């Protein structure tokens, strides 16, 4: 029988142990799933964000930092537009009118970026966020359209005429436009490269050195695009480093705030509130006298409420036990709180 009891105890112990292990494993899996699918908090107060949330935050941060370069794209496009209006003296009046309309379109798109920029209304703020997505793409499309229209409307054109603007445009696409490089940025860059390379050659007059000019244009425009890509990756590395440093400083700040709140709770659990506030003020000062202080207070006319309550309770019990003496004892009960010890 003792052997059976021992076997039963061992079986119960092993069963409870396996049950506790399953509970611990299930809790651990639940915590892991919480961290993987949402926001998790460690024991030190550090917030653990999932990888897709961090990627989205960094993407928004990177796009916001690159928006400051959009004004340089508009500035360069406006200078090219002014050049197309004034420099070619032999161009026709309709060509000048079209170039002036392009300049007005550049200025209108730039003005749209300031709508609802500092407004407190939620509708205008949402409209401004939509414009921040649409306007950079519209500016790029307008620059390509202007380049195409100018080449087509010229009666006599050479691939060397717009080579400088083609080189600058392929560089600015990667440097100034607030677009994500993968898919959209590379697509826009490739389209810009092929249009700037093929369109001037297709509408240019025949020349024996046209093939050599085409090869030179291809090398120069490709070099400008590669330099723009290099500048993009260098700026991306700098922004990523700044983002990680900001994330780390935020985590340290949260840990410090959590520790400060815990220390304040511990201090208020052992000391009265006014003493804890005075001690915290002294510890926050630069003087070293706070470690030599003894926090004591003197109070006059202090009464022990517990003893008074016990004396009142005793008199009340006697009055209830002896109903006939309640009339004589009641004045004593009323005077209990005022009589000195």
From TrEMBL:
List the residue ranges of the region (Disordered).
Answer: 1-37
Would the keyword Nucleotide-binding turn up in this protein's UniProt record?
Answer: yes
Any single GO CC term annotated in Swiss-Prot or TrEMBL for this entry: plasma membrane
Which Pfam family is an annotated match for this chain, by its short name?
AC_N
**Does the record's keyword annotation contain Magnesium?**
no
Span-the-membrane segments of this chain are: 72-89, 95-115, 127-150, 162-177, 182-203, 215-234, 308-326
Instruction: Tell me which domain of life the UniProt entry assigns to the organism this sequence originates from.
Output: Eukaryota
Task: Specify the protein name.
Answer: Adenylate cyclase type 3 isoform X5
**What are the leading ranks of the lineage?**
Eukaryota, Metazoa, Ecdysozoa, Arthropoda, Hexapoda
